[in-house]
């Protein structure tokens, strides 16, 4: 009887979700798209996320892209990954049947995620389904997603953080996911209405957006935060101390930072106890190790993860993730371990 997904007036429980997955996988099978690579550019955020979930239970490989990406760039990516089809819309019936024969959890190349560069050849990472599920469960446990968690999903559905950190990891914790429009400058004043209406208690945003919220939010936001007992998480870019301090000064609430690397599977850390002065990214998930190695006098962070991506796509060629002799990957980020 649990609401797993909420999208506007739609409240989707497990049976309805399974029905949607069946419909999508029946479509993939009927169209001969199983064991194929397909690009998705689905504008309906609910359908885009459900399509990702359905592909886990299929042998299909999906590559989610920004629906507004120029056609020339889409075609470039399509050639580089040898995609069969680009899907921009999927029709889902409200009273569809569930066919459990269409559910398959065999490990397969599941997700191709591309960096959001604006020029040059795009770089992609190929993730298999077992690794995506594994890192989602591990990250969910670290963050403590649970049945009481009501997370606001407003990150792009083609970002790794929008797929793994806030969708699959939330489902692994049996949380409720409230899907709203991607956050931007135009809807900055509406975000608190959604948080209040859907009783959101976990918000997951980028540092730059937290900076905007701290400067432009209405006074009612403080009362909403207190009433819902909201936790705030940050991902993608560095959460600088000045953003932490500005946000805390306005709302008397600390932001917890997350750090991840696409090559290592996605999210690797999360803060448990947030700091206002330290530039910390928190604790490591299970299944990941870290070491420091000095290069040109700087302390580089090296990671070893059982969830690392299967391979990379660089210059239209599939390449292995380069690691040292002990399997550690140079993140090229600088840091230290406490």
Helix share bin = 25-40%
Tell the overall outline. globular
Instruction: Give the C-alpha Rg.
Output: 20 Å
Spatial strand order of the main sheet: 2-1-9-8-10-11-12-13-14
How is the quaternary structure best described?
single chain
Q: Provide mean pLDDT, rounded.
A: 92
For the biggest sheet, the summary is:
9 strands, mixed
The proportion of strand residues reads 25-35%
User: How many angstroms does the end-to-end distance come to?
Assistant: 44 Å
Kindly name the structural category.
Answer: alpha/beta
Low-confidence stretches: none
Order of helices and strands: EEHEHEHEEEHEHEHEHHEHEEEEEEEE
Count all strands and give the number: 19
Compute the number of helices: 9
Element layout with pairings:
Blueprint: E1 5-7, E2 10-12, H1 14-30, E3 37-40, H2 45-56, E4 61-64, H3 71-81, E5 85-87, E6 109-114, E7 124-128, H4 129-143, E8 150-153, H5 160-172, E9 176-179, H6 191-197, E10 202-205, H7 207-216, H8 220-228, E11 231-234, H9 241-251, E12 255-261, E13 266-270, E14 283-284, E15 288-295, E16 298-305, E17 311-314, E18 317-319, E19 329-334
Helix pairs in contact: 1-2, 4-5, 7-9
């Amino acid at each position: 009887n649990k609401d797993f997904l909420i999208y506007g007036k739609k409240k989707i429980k497990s049976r309805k979700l399974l029905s949607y997955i069946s419909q999508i996988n029946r479509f993939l099978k009927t169209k001969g798209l199983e064991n194929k690579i397909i690009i998705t550019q689905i504008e309906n955020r609910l359908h885009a996320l459900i399509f990702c979930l359905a592909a886990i239970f299929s042998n299909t490989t999906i590559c989610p892209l920004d629906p507004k990406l120029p056609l020339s760039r889409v075609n470039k990516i399509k050639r580089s990954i040898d995609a069969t089809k680009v899907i921009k819309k999927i029709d889902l019936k409200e009273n569809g049947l569930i066919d459990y024969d269409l559910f398959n959890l065999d490990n397969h190349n599941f997700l191709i995620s591309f960096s959001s560069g604006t020029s040059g050849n795009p770089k992609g990472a190929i993730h298999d389904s077992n690794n995506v599920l594994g890192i989602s469960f591990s990250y969910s446990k670290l963050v403590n997603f649970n049945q009481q968690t009501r997370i606001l999903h407003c990150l792009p559905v083609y970002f790794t953080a929008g797929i793994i950190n806030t969708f699959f990891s939330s489902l692994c914790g049996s949380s409720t996911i409230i899907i709203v429009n991607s956050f931007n400058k135009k809807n900055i004043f509406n975000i608190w209405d959604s948080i209040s209406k859907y009783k959101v208690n976990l918000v997951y945003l980028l540092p730059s957006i937290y900076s905007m919220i701290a400067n432009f939010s209405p006074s009612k936001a403080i009362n909403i935060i207190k009433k819902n007992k909201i936790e705030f998480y940050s991902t993608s870019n560095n959460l600088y101390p000045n953003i932490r301090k500005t946000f805390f000064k306005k709302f008397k609430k600390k932001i917890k930072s997350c750090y991840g690397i696409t090559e290592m599977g996605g999210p690797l850390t999360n803060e448990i106890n947030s700091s206002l002065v330290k530039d910390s990214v928190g604790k490591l998930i299970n299944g990941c190790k870290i070491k420091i190695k000095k290069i040109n006098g700087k302390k580089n962070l090296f990671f070893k993860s059982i969830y690392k991506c299967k391979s990379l796509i660089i210059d239209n060629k599939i390449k292995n993730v380069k690691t040292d002799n002990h399997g550690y990957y140079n993140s090229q980020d600088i840091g230290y371990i406490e």
